[in-house]
Write a structure and sequence with these properties.
Mean pLDDT of chain A: 97
Number of helices of chain A: 15
Low-confidence stretches of chain A: none
Shape of chain A: globular
CATH topology of the largest domain in chain A: TIM Barrel
Number of domains of chain A: 2
Helix content of chain A: 25-40%
Structural class of chain A: alpha/beta
Largest sheet of chain A: 9 strands, mixed
Radius of gyration of chain A: 21 Å
Oligomer: homodimer
CATH superfamily of the largest domain in chain A: Metal-dependent hydrolases
Strand content of chain A: 15-25%
Chain lengths: ~450, ~450
């Protein structure tokens, strides 16, 4: 018999492997954070001697969901202002608050965001904000997998006085996370409308120098496109292409507005992933991205919640549901975006967005990043088709266990790495003091 | 001091009263199933001597949500077939299964549906299906408030051989529920496309005779409207109006397709409520109802999940979220359908749909139908604006307590009236035997 650290048993395992196999009465053997075997329970019990064995019972194990675009620390501003036009929301409500941010606040509220993610089955995310060192610190406390970058703007942020500082800060992020398998850095010029050609080119050069991908908000609204046309004579996508950004792997959040010409540019780009955020696009009335067409054209697609101030959740089950429902309605076709396609976006697509070919499916050699749903939750009984349940019936509260690199981070309501109650007490204290100042 | 049976304390109470007051550190006094006082905790503690006192701590109490259009027993078919065109879904998947239904199956799977509702804060629903006596039996077992009617069709159902039988069955429902304050009957001709003028007229006459409202599916898809135009030379709404149905209180599910002329007819009707089902309309690609315009025109609006085979959830928090997001996107306006409007639909609007003027808000004299959400759930921390949280941040899993007429039916994961585990075992047995037959 071979040795492993953990043997997990479950009623069902949804693998997301090439055959999209769903195993019944099955097991996973985990060692050094990686999956070393997966298959029928009886077989694994014969072949593996485990330091620890856990029978999760009537659960469905699936690859941990990957939130491919978020701003976790914005839990601070969740529900602070809603039902407003984008500009009024940003300029009168969000920006003034963000100007007062500190590294301490960003760490605290990122940790709160990561708590929500872990409790709803998300094991990894792609984050862009300010004070990203503090976001990495929060990720270390939660144990979540994080790819993140400091937002680079054409104006000062509470963290960086200028864009050069933000790029310098990005280099420091790389140095400070180099030894950690769960943490990765991405160069993050915020968007076309908050930067200029010089900043975007400098970001590109830094990405080339450090061999990193790029992460931007792109073509989120008709207003943004009109403004870019006016300023640069091109669509945001054509403009980025001209500046050469698509020579690097680029992760493009939103891409709500996308002409046929834009689509051709994206199709020809070497390594581009569209980070679709249906909840945010709906709530801010930005529009509906042409995701089904992008899928047909073979573009790489992932799914994100965006920040909790414009969603207002960090829950990938709900985001999958929105993606499926929104595009059926918009396409006037109930066969559009079936459950399997949406689930692929939230798992394998997310793994591609993070540049991880060892995530997104439960296969030998991959990291043991996974979550388990209680199949006896009233909304999951009976279960004919697990993929359908994940997209249409689940809401994330069925999660009983979430694990990254074989380490259990959330277990039946309890976070293993940090004390959630004391986190809440700290949040309450901070909010009270902010209110006092206001 | 006055006597009451229960004194409930909570951090916040969202009243949905005329001023939409939200009380902090507040209490509810309940006696004989009704609210006898509501106000500051200190005041109620001075004024009331309670048989039982419960301090729920850091929760938000709100009126129980009302699911104004559903087919609870369709939990049997949840996830059985998805991502299909409506007709193929109905004719090849749903109808053949429904032809094999029995009263026992309907009771079992309705109870499962009610479990999901209670666990996600829903205290009442408006149901239409077949074997409704069994649905009422399930409601008695769960304790949920139910208004329901036997579906009347122009063809035989597994329960009734003909429409005359279904109307007779409806009369029997009235007799068998007359003494129960939680149960009400509604005459339920299924739709225009499954009936004819004779059936609709007979349904109207029965409603007049028994002094009951009517519940129909109406104008759900462009195909339905085209078919009605062809068969009757009118839109479904104009056709119902001509037949006189709007002389009674009518509860109209969907109303996705609605011309300006139709809207005028609905506006002039005496007592009509539109039962909006955004999740089902999106999933089946039926279209987007003109809810913001109906709201402007002062129509009475409620919210429903539809059946769990076309949603696939019976969760009113998610339905509120969909209603808010869908209409913002469709109207291209983030100010459309603010949280407060949507919350009104799910509470006060639902109460009107059920013909209950003693539900939908927490006020003296109303039934104590309510639910409580744990405000320490990661997705509800911090809490600036409770109504925003209910529509944009909650997903229903934060519910810790649900009560109907002062009786606790769901308490921190446990159903008080029935054994959920044995229900699940029975469901598993039934599904296995159905699979064996198939």
């Amino acid at each position: 018999m071979r040795q492993c650290s953990l043997l997990l048993h479950a009623q069902k395992i949804l693998t997301q492997d090439a055959q999209r196999r769903i195993l019944e009465d099955a097991s996973l053997a985990i060692n050094d954070g990686k999956i070393v075997d997966i298959g029928p329970r009886r077989q694994l019990e014969c072949n593996w001697q485990a330091t620890r064995t856990s029978d999760l019972g009537n659960v469905l194990i699936l690859p941990g969901l990957i939130n491919a675009h978020t701003h976790a620390a914005m839990t601070l501003l969740r529900g602070y202002a809603d039902d407003l036009p984008l500009l009024q929301w940003l300029e009168q409500k969000i920006f003034p608050r963000e100007a007062q941010l500190t590294a301490e606040l960003v760490e605290l509220f990122s940790l709160l965001g990561f708590a929500e993610m872990l409790a709803s089955g998300t094991t990894a995310c792609l984050d862009m904000y300010i004070f990203e060192k503090a976001v990495f610190a929060a990720a270390r406390r939660a144990g979540i997998r994080l790819t993140a970058g400091e937002g680079v703007f054409g104006f000062s942020s509470a963290c960086c006085a200028c864009w050069q500082d933000a790029l310098q800060y990005t280099e420091e992020l790389v140095a400070s996370t180099a030894q950690e398998s769960r943490l990765k850095v991405i160069v993050s010029p915020h968007s076309v409308y908050t930067t200029d050609p010089q900043i975007l080119t400098a970001s590109l050069h830094l990405a080339e120098k450090l061999n990193l991908p790029l992460h931007l908000h792109l073509s989120e609204s008709p207003q943004e496109v009109a403004q870019c046309q006016k300023a640069h004579g091109q669509s945001p996508i054509a403009y980025l292409s001209r500046l050469g950004l698509f020579s690097r792997p680029t992760k493009l959040a939103h891409v709500v507005v996308c002409s046929d010409t834009d689509l051709d540019i994206l199709s020809q780009a070497k390594d581009t992933t569209i980070l679709h955020c249906p909840g945010s696009n709906m709530k801010l009335a930005s529009g509906c991205a042409r995701i089904p067409l992008m899928h047909q054209r073979g573009l790489s697609l992932a799914l994100g919640t965006d920040g909790p101030a414009s969603n207002n959740q960090l829950n990938m089950f709900l985001e999958m549901n929105r993606a499926a429902l929104l595009h059926k309605l918009t396409a006037n076709d109930p066969e559009t975006m079936p459950a399997s396609t949406v689930l692929d976006m939230a798992t394998l697509g997310g793994a591609r967005a993070l540049g991880h070919n060892d995530l997104g499916s439960l296969e030998i050699g991959n990291w043991a990043d996974l979550t388990a749903l209680d199949l006896s939750a009233p909304n999951l009984v009976p279960c004919y088709e697990p993929a359908s349940h994940l997209v249409y019936a689940a809401s994330g509260h069925e999660v009983v266990l979430t694990m990254v690199e074989g380490e259990i981070l959330y277990d039946h309501g309890t976070f293993t790495r940090f004390d959630y109650e004391s986190l809440c007490r700290e949040v309450t204290k901070v909010i009270a003091s902010i209110r006092k100042m206001a």
